[in-house]
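Figure 3 (text version): structure tokens given as input.
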């Protein structure tokens, strides 16, 4: 069974969204010569949606990076404040992983 990490899933989602945005931009360029009130309104709405999607993807990346940095800072602070507690947690986690591996 293939395991997908959160990071891999996020990267794939961002990649897929960028592809959708690129395809939509190509579609908008291909319909540039089309006329009509309805087509003009749809094109304007699509362009606005694309701008918003690009901005959200950029913000999403920033938020994820900031959250990861914050989590790393908190973990570092906890380990520095509670070194023996951190050793105990690591030992228990190692024991659990060992038991799980031994069962397979």
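Below: residues designed for each position.
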């Amino acid at each position: 069974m293939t395991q997908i990490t959160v990071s891999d899933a996020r990267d794939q989602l961002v990649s897929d969204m960028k592809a959708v945005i690129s395809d939509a931009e190509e579609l908008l360029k291909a319909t540039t010569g089309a006329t009509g009130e309805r087509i003009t309104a749809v094109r304007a709405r699509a362009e606005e949606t694309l701008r918003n999607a690009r901005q959200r993807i950029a913000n999403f990346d920033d938020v994820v990076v900031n959250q990861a940095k914050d989590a790393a800072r908190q973990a570092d602070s906890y380990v520095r404040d509670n070194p023996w507690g951190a050793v105990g947690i690591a030992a228990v986690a190692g024991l659990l992983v060992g038991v799980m591996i031994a069962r397979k």
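The chain has one domain: 6-103.
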